[in-house]
Amino acid sequence: MKIGILGTGSVGRTIGTAFIQTGHEVMLGSRSVTNEKAIAWVEANGINAQHGNFEDAAQFAELIFACFNGVFVTEVLKQAGAENFNNKIVIDVTNPLDFSNGMPPSLLSQYSNTWSLGEEIQQQLPGAKVVKALNTVTANLMVNAQLVNNAHHHLFICGNDVAAKNAVRELLAHNFHWNPEYILDFGSIQSARLTEGIVPFWVGAMQVLGTPMFNYLIVK
Q1: What confidence category does residue 137 fall into, taking pLDDT thresholds of 50, 70 and 90?
Q2: pLDDT in tens, 40-65
Q3: pLDDT of residue 101
Q4: pTM for the model
Q5: Which helix (H) or strand (E) holds 30?
Q6: Measured on CA atoms in the order 166, 168, 169, 170, is the torsion positive or negative?
Q7: Mean pLDDT value across residues 94-102
Q8: Is the dihedral of CA 68, 94, 65, 172 positive or negative?
Q9: What does the alpha-carbon distance between residue 157 and residue 18 come to, in Å, rounded to a whole number?
Q10: pLDDT value at position 103?
Q11: Quick check: is 81 in a domain?
């Protein structure tokens, strides 16, 4: 599969590398084709790794990951071109975190309580099938669920398209060892308000625990 990743930070590079290791072709997208992180990532990952601008990555991809800073959502999607997302699954890993007052962060005011980045991305990409996923765990755990409790912990997803969510569940199970029984569907993309809303707590817990290698397990 051809996978496009919008964003060249640690999350995007980690996901990209993991998909190459499972046999996929990956293009990292950034503002500029001269992005040094993307160039170095391609050099380290061989012939199935490519880089380009946001539009290049969106055009290239059969499936797209949104891994950019949520503050820049409108800028990134405008550069990528909404038409390049039509009928494609977009896995939204973004979080609307505000670190301006230190740690732990708060949520950006425009994406809290009554609106979310997930909803914003779906609104700006009406032809896409946006699935919010992976935003509640650290990057290394995203790509290998077995690193914590032998994958016995929960991942939360949401989105408006049931078939797209099922496809994401299968993709994560096949490539990243997520147990499908532990992937909880929270319903429509509106539930991104909930899954994004717990991330400041996650950051606080990371500070207390001294490690990002943990996750939520709901017991009933």
Answers
A1: very high
A2: 999 999 999 999 999 999 999 999 99
A3: 84
A4: 0.96
A5: strand 25-30
A6: positive
A7: 89
A8: positive
A9: 20
A10: 84
A11: yes
User: Which CATH number is 30's domain given?
Assistant: 3.40.50.720
- Contact by Cβ (8 Å): 133, 91: yes
Residue 217 lies in a domain: no
The answer as to whether 148 is a domain residue is yes
Q: 165: Cβ–Cβ under 8 A, 6 or more apart, which residues?
A: 131, 157, 158, 159, 185
* pLDDT higher than 90, residue 100: no
Cα distances (angstroms) measured from residue 211 to each of 138, 206, 215, 217: 10, 5, 11, 17
Summarize the confidence of residues 115-123 as an average pLDDT: 98
DSSP state of 114: S
3-class DSSP state for residue 156? strand
What is the Cα gyration radius of the chain?
Answer: 16
Q: What is the pLDDT of residues 173-198, one digit of tens each?
A: 999 999 999 999 999 999 999 999 99
Beta strands in 54-191 (DSSP E): 63-66, 89-92, 97-98, 106-107, 129-132, 155-159, 183-185
Phi/psi of residue 25, nearest 5 degrees: -95, 135
Number of structural domains the chain divides into? 1
Q: What is the pLDDT of residue 180?
A: 96
Residue 215 within any structural domain of the chain? no
Domain span at residue 201? 2-209
Helices (H), 159-218: 162-176, 192-197, 199-209
Closest by CA to 60, choosing from 114, 100, 22, 24, is 24
Parallel, antiparallel or unpaired: strands 2-6 and 183-185: unpaired
